[in-house]
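Sharing a chain and its predicted structure for anyone who wants a worked example. Both blocks are below, sequence first, tokens second.
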Amino acid sequence: MNILLTTRARYNVESLQKDIQDKIACLESKLTLARTEIPSEISRAMSVVDSTSEQISRLEIKLETVRHEVIDYTHEVKPMVGELGALVNRMQEVKKYAHYLSTVVKIEDISSQIQASLMTESLGSAVDSFNEITHIFNLLHSSSCHHLVTYVKETILFWNKILQDRIAVEFEEVLKALRWPLVVTTIKAPTVTNVAELKERMGKLFKKLLSLQLPDSISLENSGAHPLLLKIVGIKPLLLPLELMLKPLKKRFRYHFYGQKQTNSLDKPEWYLTQILSWIRDHSDFLERNIQPLLDESGRRDVCARTELTRGLVMMVMEKIGHDLPQLVFDEANFSHLIDEVLLFDSEIRNTYSYPPILPGCLDVLSLPEALTKWLVMEQKFAMQKIEQMLQSPSCWESQYKGITDLDEVKVPECAESFMTLLHTITDRYRRLPVSDAKLQFLGLQLELLEDFRMRLVQVMKEASSAPTGNIFCAVLNAVHYIAHVLKEWSELTFFLQLLCYKNNRSLKTSWTESPSTEQLSHTFQSSKGAENHTSNSEIGEDEDILASVLADIPDVLVQHTVFEEITSLFESMETDMIKAACHYVFIDVQARSLPYRRDRWIALPAPKELTTTLGLSSSACEMFLVLKDHMATMESQLSKFLFDRFWQHLTKLIDNFILNEVVFPNYFNDGGALQLQFDITRNLIPLFGDYSHSPASYFRLSKEACTLLTLPKGSALLLRELFHSREQVKQQQLDIQSALRDIGVFTLTPEQCQRVFSLRTNLAE
């Protein structure tokens, strides 16, 4: 066996030796190769470097020669370049004149073609030539040649009127034959016989009129619309054929709702609004069946015939409102009634008739400064009158749901609920306004009303502060909490989040514009654009410092997380102060009744064995606990559950600290006194709060732990006190003390407080 092991070991050693020798041979061959080949490669590289250096030198000499030649040539041709430059500029100017004149000639030629077509009654050819002029205008409308643009525009208007008059007469006759507009009359109209032929003629004329559509910029200037409408973003002219279809309706509208007609009454805007809605309803079917296919065939599939006609009718209403506005702003009752009716009208056409929200509507007119300023003043005036009426009501501080257990949980006074309903109504009125700036102005009005109402609540609270447990004080507290709670809920609504985003973005733009370092930063950025690529790191650092200073100058405009954040914090602060005031009032009353209890001779009470049969609530504590119970019952009946929970939890902290500092620390306790105090606390005080919490003892930790230390068996108390004394010499035993205190159920009292409690036990005196 030994021989076999020796043989195997020898074989392993020989194999290892052979591997090592092979590796050594391989390394020696590589080393030899490196010694022979590397020097030759180095010499080859050096020769390449030398030749490259020579080439660079030759190129530098050649470059210098070429540079001198270029400089010499530049000096020679410089006079000629100046002459040629002036010639080129002159040629370009002449070219512009030629192009200008050719454009004028082209327009005159097209005008001649249109005239010739009209003389031969070739309307189609005339319309095609007219489209050529509009195409030229679209190319030139942004040109600086204002006279040329004006000439083209006047030419377009001239021929448009002639062509439109030629076609419009026939188009209106066809529409009249088809019984357009579809209005209700008492006279029965004869039946249309040749409907197919009339529709075919209407289609041809409709398409020709579409070709006569003026560019938007020209059409708006010559539309004759009310000046207020031109201030509204998104106002565009109607398609020409639909504008002609709207013409008889406009005539009827102006006949009935302008001038001295009885139907034109400022206090009855619902009359013309209802008429517009009926026209939209009556003509929708005709438009979808007869006009929409014509628009589709003409390549106008993006245009809805019913929407286009609705837009024209809505613009009629907008003009009517703009016409009546100067008189309405001096009549608050009629103006308020107009706003209500317009809000209903806008909601009707948007929801029932699918009028797109991106298109201008009647609310755009009310968002203009001419109407919005009066609206805000009127809204504020009516709101203030409503608030005065709320607070003067005999039942303003009573809950509307008093006596209904399920609904009266929050105990909101009538005035607070009415006030928030008022704010909600204001929100509903301005929520659909299309202009965000107008919405922000209404939001500002709401914030002003909230602050005014808060100040009124503060005044009432101060008047009732002599009785913080009274009905008025508690009703104000309920109102404050309810308003803060509702504002928090509103702050999470999409509508107010969108307003917050818009407000923050606008504030950021304003702050950036007004920042004193903005001009410096702009100058720096402009300079950096023209700087060379080899800008130094120090210059980059300076630019970063300037940017940091600019950003530091901009105020922190994005710290606001909700639009009601500031006013909500004021209401919450008021709520906290009122709860503290109520707690302080109750605590002072309880403390005033506690003097006999604090002066009890805890050191002279009978031994625990004698107290066991007669143990009960200390007679000196009866009045104190009875007053506390009465106050708790009163506050529970007058405060909402949330507020009452905050109230009694804050009150327990005061009472807990009071018992420790005013009852325990100033007295000495024998065994009977400690037992009596523990009974008063654990069997009488803590159960008073048992109806409000499943674990009321957790709110009296200081008192309960003090009683635990006072009633701790003497042996355990002595051992623990010794541990306290040793702590003064050996600080490493701090953890042992905390562990020992936790073992007996003491978690809140500090070791110093525990040591002081032990010093109050007479049975531990040395």
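Comments welcome. The longest helix spans residues 2-119.
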